Amino acid sequence: MIAGMEGLLTHYTYIVTIFLMVSGLFVVIARGNMVKKLVGLGCFQTSVYLLYIGPAKILGGTAPILAPEYSVYSNPLPHVLILTAIVVGVATLALGLALTVRINEAYGTIEEDEIFARDMVEHANSEESAS
Amino acid sequence: MSAAPGFELGHHLPALQVVVPLIGAVICAMLRNGTLAWGWALIVSVLTAAISTMLFVAVQAGGTISYGLGGWAPPYGIEYRVDLLSAFILLIVSWAGAIIMVYARQSVMHEIDAGKRAWYYCMYLLCLTGLLGIAITGDAFNAFVFMEVSSLSMYTLIAMGKNRRALLSSYQYLIMGTIGATFYVIGVGILFTLTGSLNFVDIAERLVTMQMERPAIAAITFLTVGISLKLALFPLHSWLPNAYAYAPSVTTSFLAGTATKVAIYLLMRIFFSTFGEAKVFEILPTTTILVLLSVSAMIGASLVAVFQDDVKRVLAYSSVAQVGYITLGIALANDLGLTSALVHIFNHALMKTALFLAVGAVFLRIGSVRLHDLDGIGPKMPVTMAAFALAGFALIGTPGTAGFVSKYYLAAAVIDKGWWGLVFVIAASSLIAVFYVGRLLEAIWFRAPGALAQKASDPPLSMLLPIVGLSLAVIWFGVDTRLTVDVAHNIATMLLGGVK
Amino acid sequence: MKLDLILRVMTKFILPYILVFALYVQFHGDFGPGGGFQAGVIAACMIILYGLIFGLPAAQAIVPQGLVEFLIPLGVLIYAGTGVVGMLLGGNYLEYTYLAHEPSHGHHLGILFVELGVLITVASTMVAFFFAFAGRKRT
Fold first, then answer.
1. Which domains does chain A have, with CATH numbers?
2. Among B30, B152, B236, C24, which one has the highest count of C-beta atoms within 10 angstroms of its own C-beta?
3. B–C: how many Cβ contacts below 8 A?
4. Domain extents for chain C?
């Protein structure tokens, strides 16, 4: 029990990461509101940033600058990677929001159920006019 | 530092493969005018195709090419690594891009608003850049970035469809695609933490000395699920039919011919050149899972295709089924299986592009792709519909067409494994394909033309040429298999002998 | 916000400092934390703040939509073009070593141009986001 608790505490970054990951994914799946879905997606992506950044920090390590008095460095690569991933995330979010705005203009709602309902009505109407 | 060497075209081909469409896309956005942008995009995509052909020839003659971006030697810098598999995929993607671009002008003029046309071509070239980048890079994280470049531009390309449902399907694809890419990047992250490297070759070398511990298994799982979302493996395909159905015709053809193929390439790269088939298929139940999902796709998606009333949706569900054939070949993980998977990547790109281009021509003429609007349209647009029929026969797997070649090798691979039951599954799936293709052809050729079909005629030459060319290629590659089967066989040998 | 004198005056007062700070972050990026991404966002904030206080038409009079749409690809072009120049001078793509007579100067020059490209693209993309979302009417 104690050992288990210790394992949890020493790996708390992973716990936070996994919590964010699962909650973000849950929101994406469980919510019908398109903006809320994007919020969940953002949460999910943010957890990945933590997944990279967490292990990259070495306690007592410095920035990777060559100097004789330091010998322990943190790896800068994960930070650079995540900088790129953040930009990708922002672009995805912006595109998602832009689509949501356009969907709102086209359908008058951003709730998925209502959109499907309106599409069904439209589909039924066009079937009627075709036959 | 030595004195600066001069510029050598041959040396820089891997970089140019990605840089040419990238710069092309940027200039396209600056041109503003739709027709000018099309002309420029055509030049760029043909140049890109020429570069990929030169790369393919160079790799066949001289083996794998490695190019350190920014002069940083791999594994520290980003490496562009062109082996035979990459060169083969580059060839498919860039030629599909060029051929569809010839076709694009009339179709885009019809389907996209004037002010957006230059942006459309810009996004098209960006998407091409991303797809080529995934295929050429030897860096796992760089592959993610290119995946997002291609996906983001693909979402835009889909959202430009006239129907408001295009927006919705683009949004759904965005959600699913981003989840897939994030799963992929989680897998890469775990792999990076485990091995300290992002270079596929370097990771493979470091993994050899490691036991398959839990992180590696988690990494494989995340990578497989993420990429499966992108390649529309059976239960994860829900984004695909809507995206195909409501996107503009050019987007659909491009998406069908290239995007899923590149995702399959990435899966092969991860399975065979990074982890090695011993680890993926012997320690984990990958074979069972992939075979089951592939079989469900081949039967299930084909059955759904039979009951669609929109031609694009029929072909979309058929794409899900065809991806099943490819993943079945991968799951077999033997020489013949991989050969059949690679051959089918090529052949499926060929025939699906031809089919969707023909459907796009129909949409140009009558403004609808509903099945009952296509009644009796065959005699009205004879050349287009004859090409459609040819590609349709290939989809079934009629002997003498490209589709037969890949199915033949898949069946041989299954028999080689000793799994006779699967032969019947392949036969059953082909039989269902007879139904859904037959249903289309019956309506097109043997029914009395409806009001819409009456006024249809063959499309302009710039659209007709790609359609006819591709459908003749379907026959050509059904007879002459040097480019497909021999190359695929060499790639399969390379992949299976790659990681010891 | 026509009558909000403090906001209007303070905004006009603060705008040049935002730009100077953006340029500081930009050029400091060679030696410390900073660079094109951050500087681009800060520079875009200047336009966005102006737009928030004085209204969208005023902001679009300074930075027309057409200019923004031209600058987004221009930044990428500068970035990619730097890589191509490096290639033409004999290095690999994006290799800065041969841009100047000495490799370290070359690297300095190369990253300067690349960051300039990033600055332009990021700043104009942020402004484009703002224009796109702020320009829509409520439905």
1. 2-130 (1.10.287.3510)
2. B152
3. 62
4. 5-134
